[in-house]
Amino acid sequence: MEWRRGHTIGHGSSASVSVAKSRFSDEVFAVKSVELSKSELLQKEQKILSQLSSPYVVSYKGCDVTKEKDKLMFNVMMEYMSEGTLVDENRKHGGRINEPLIGYYAKQIAQGLEYLHSRGIAHCDIKGQNILLGKTGAKIADFGCARWIDQADRDVGATEPIGGTPMFMAPEVARGGEQGRPGDIWSMGCTIIEMATGRSAWTNATNAASLLYQIAFSGESPEIPKFLSLEARDFLSKCLRRDPKERWTAKQLLKHPFLEDFNLNSTTDQDFVTSSPTSILDQDIWNSVEESETMDYSIETASSVDSPLQRLRELGSNSGELKFRWNDDERWITVRRSSEYIDR
């Protein structure tokens, strides 16, 4: 397939993410790219992503090898999510996302995790930066730290080193123990606290080393915001139990009243939680071992509010519907598949 590479929308420690278009259909998608000689991690991610199909997981569109500027590049094509990440969403809401919208996103994250876990996959790096947003809501992305679980014969498995982001690690993971389904649930709890407060679940952390020690050995759990509803607080308490055996599964959480009773059509302006604490989402200790992509989107606003997601956003934002704006002077680079280097 011939496609055209647009501007870069994200960077990691090695890979970069660009907007791309098919040369013949003008389909827009995202391409994650790295030099072929350094592509072991991205190829591992491609193998996992290519076996997934869920409305709550960013969809896989293919892979190829191209030659660009005399370098062979390994590329993974994925669904393009036009509205950024949960971190971006938090900033748009002044540091706090309202509880109805938190419930909306939390349910979709839980649905995505329930799907992954049923497939024998642990994501291992759930956080706001790895939850991408589009017109239908939230989808789980970035499988660079993901691993197969429960099946020893998988080529990606339990022998891998611990990966992820310290700020979102479960106690057993911080201690270097098992990294599996319960760790994803803990990370989701930390992500929900970040959505609600605009701050880390661990407010006193100063560096990654002391943070990991605190998570692993202090016996403490993150403080659950008191301003949340009783159901939301109870939901978080089920996610943030220090003993992984006592932590609820994604399947159990989907039956919790906080998610089960969630009704997109019944929200009112009274549900909006006001306050705009200073956001510290960019501190270094949020970064994963292999840095996740930080999306930089250009947006424009529209006045129509014609979907449940947009109505929920309007509870805490005047931005309305978010749309990607293509620049008139956008320059595109045409790339061609190098079939001799890939046989997938």
UniProtKB/TrEMBL annotation:
Q: Which GO terms describe its biological process?
A: signal transduction
**Protein name (database record):** Protein kinase domain-containing protein
User: By its UniProt entry, which SMART domains does this protein fall under?
Assistant: S_TKc (SM00220)
Origin: domain of life = Eukaryota
The keyword Nucleotide-binding belongs to this UniProt entry's keyword annotation? yes
Q: Which Gene3D superfamilies match?
A: Transferase(Phosphotransferase) domain 1
Q: Where does ATP bind?
A: 32
Keyword ATP-binding on this protein? yes
User: GO terms for molecular function, please?
Assistant: ATP binding; protein serine/threonine kinase activity
- Tell me where in this chain the Protein kinase domain is found: 3-259
Protein family membership: Belongs to the protein kinase superfamily.
Per UniProt, the keywords (alphabetical) are: ATP-binding, Kinase, Nucleotide-binding, Serine/threonine-protein kinase, Transferase
Species name? Capsicum baccatum
